[in-house]
Known about the structure:
With 85 residues, this protein is mainly alpha-helical. Helix content is 71%, strand content 0%.
Amino acid sequence: MHGAVLMGLLLVLAFVLALMLKPLFLGMLAGYYATTLAYSVRLKRILLVDVLVLAGLYTLRVIPAGRPSVCRCLSGCSPSRCSCS
Length: 85
């Protein structure tokens, strides 16, 4: 019971803090939460979808960091011009 209450409080806190940032970040947080919820309920049972959803979620964790080299690499630039260090 305490875990569920704490989870709800932390979720509300995350969205309140996201409101203080760019609106795009709030949208990404909502999308991440919805995708994680869908994965936990159903998507993890579908083999290929499981892998693709997890890869997408990992990518969504990297994008808000805003490192230019990461964003260039995720945009599909060629490896010879992309420094992902």
